[in-house]
Prior knowledge:
The protein contains six helices and seven strands; from the N terminus they run βαβαβαβαββααβ. By secondary structure, it is of the alpha/beta class. Strands 3-2-1-4-5-7-6 form a seven-stranded mixed beta sheet, with helices on both faces. α2 (44-57) packs antiparallel against α5 and α3 crosses α4 (104-120). It binds zinc ion.
Amino acid sequence: xxxxxxxxxxxxxxxxxxxxxxxxxxxxxxxxxxxxxxxxxxxxxxxxxxxxxxxxxxxxxxxxxxxxxxxxxxxxxxxxxxxxxxxxxxxxxxxxxxxxxxxxxxxxxxxxxxxxxxxxxxxxxxxxxxxxxxxxxxxxxxxxxxxxxxxxxxxxxxxxxxxxxxxxxxxxxxxxxxxxxxxxxxxxxxxxxxxxxxxxxxxxxxxxxxxxxxxx
Length: 216
Ligand SMILES: [Zn+2]
């Protein structure tokens, strides 16, 4: 069954770096509905690139009025997500991790989204993605296979890097990060993955496997 995914991020490019391959692969193939909510337009260049990336990856988006590099956890920020979440009623929410090595915008988005989702869609699954900069405390448990979507992800990153040119958008770096997580899941294979921490997942009626079914 198709699901509704809300990707909540601070700036254009975060959606690609964090989960561009996942958007391009599983979500699209299953006809899932994907909405990307950004709290700020980053800057004019990134704002201009975003529609092209959205077309390439297959998502809809909307942009909030909050200032890049100066977004705080305020009632206004929570209300912004309240409205988006109420309108869209997501089954799965993907947002930033909390990390001391990243823009405060990302941490503010994380906090506001979790507060809002806990009240409005308490059974929605919440996943948080890998921070832009390496964080040794990021300890993922969910891995999305993007082996067949890596070229699309790199193409999307290329659209942004033509205006920004940041080292963390370089194709080799993005591919190596995906290969690192792939090796964690399938050692010795050529699998590429994006990684997520599971914040919350509601199982509903839980069915426990018979002990004989559990491989030892
Ligand atoms: Zn960002």
